[in-house]
TrEMBL record:
It comes from Gloeothece verrucosa (strain PCC 7822) (Cyanothece sp. (strain PCC 7822)). GO terms for molecular function: transferase activity. Signal peptide: none annotated. This is Glycosyl transferase family 2. Keywords: Membrane, Transferase, Transmembrane, Transmembrane helix. Gene3D superfamilies: Spore Coat Polysaccharide Biosynthesis Protein SpsA, Chain A. The chain crosses the membrane at residues 242-267, 279-302.
């Protein structure tokens, strides 16, 4: 009975064009195993390895394992993802890393959730297995929590793992995503794109493992953390300009009032304004506050128009439909 269900499920899954996307830089130790595991889990999928200026045998290992190898010479994961999304045409996209840290066996569960709940993105929220506590370095874990909480605060969404690189997408998400980032901040941009357009997505727990000996992470905790934070702030300004500039206006207004209060009290007591430069500074800062508020109002209309254009681009693609009455993909 189980074999019969698996055959039905495999036939149903064969109706979709599935692309597995693996951005890689110097992952010669692990890429062959990752490709092999994805081939076993999704035998009907096309597996693309995008080499990003590797200096080891990543290309040779990927080719020998049967992957389609492409090249992107601009450094940074964001540049690779932008190239992947532009070049590859499929119904379902699986994005992962080539370092063998993500749970490849969970990919069918992620695809199943994407299809059955009619989502456009499913994020593999990382959970460290009990026997590999060193997989998630403390600095990375704390940074992920801080940045995820920061985005929750800015955009009002409940998230668990905003920075996970293990994701499954629909075609309409991929083809409507602008991909403006260059580096590891691409995960932040993917999440905020979904939040901005209110695109349906979900998080699914997956196991996160440690790198094998000799394999080094390309993530720089502080440098890339600041870049992710800067990207979140920049996108906050672009997506919600009225709120952003209102906060700036409020800050400037408070500074102006704080400078003006002593002058006003002195004027009530003596009828004089002895600190004229401070009075001019206070008035100038208040003008900047009103100017900031005006900019926020204007840019909010511009952002609304841009959001409408993005939404129409998103709706121009159809969502993958379930084949048959139901789809249950067994491990």
């Amino acid at each position: 009975m189980l074999d019969h269900l698996q055959k039905i499920n495999q036939v149903a899954l064969n109706n979709y064009r599935i692309a597995v996307l693996l951005p890689c830089r110097n992952e010669g130790l692990t890429i062959a195993r990752v490709v092999s595991e994805f081939k076993k889990a999704l035998p009907q999928a096309e597996i693309y390895v995008y080499n990003n200026r590797s200096t080891d045998d990543t290309v040779e290992q990927a080719q020998s394992s049967g992957a389609i190898v492409c090249h992107e010479y601009l450094p940074g994961k964001g540049n690779v993802v932008r190239r992947m999304f532009a070049d590859i045409d499929a119904d379902i996209y699986v994005l992962a890393d080539g370092d063998n840290t993500y749970e490849v066996g969970a990919v069918k569960r992620l695809i199943e959730r994407l299809l059955t709940e009619q989502l456009d993105m499913v994020v593999g929220a990382r959970r460290v297995a009990g026997n590999t506590p060193q997989a998630y370095r403390p600095g990375h874990k704390m940074g992920n929590r801080f940045l995820t909480g920061f985005v929750q605060f800015l955009f009002g969404a409940r998230l668990v793992d905003m920075l996970s690189g293990y994701r499954v997408f629909s075609r309409r998400f991929v083809k409507s995503f602008p991909a403006l980032s260059n580096g590891f901040e691409i995960e932040t941009e993917l999440t905020i794109h979904a939040l901005e357009l209110k695109i349906p997505f979900a998080e699914e727990p997956t196991i996160y493992g440690s790198r094998p000996p000799g394999s080094e992470s390309k993530l720089r905790t502080f440098t890339d953390g600041w870049r992710v934070l800067g990207t979140a702030l920049l996108l906050f300004k672009e997506i919600r300009p009225f709120l952003f500039f209102s906060l700036v206006s409020l800050f400037l207004g408070c500074v102006s009032i704080a400078l003006a209060i002593p002058i006003f009290i002195n004027y009530l007591e003596t009828g004089l304004v002895p600190r004229f430069p401070t009075a001019i500074l206070s008035a100038s800062i208040m003008l900047l506050a009103f100017l900031s508020l005006t900019c926020g109002l204007i840019l909010d209309s511009v952002a609304r128009g841009r959001r409408e254009v993005k939404r129409m681009a998103y709706l121009s693609y159809s969502l993958p439909q379930l084949v048959g009455q139901s789809l249950r993909l067994k491990e």
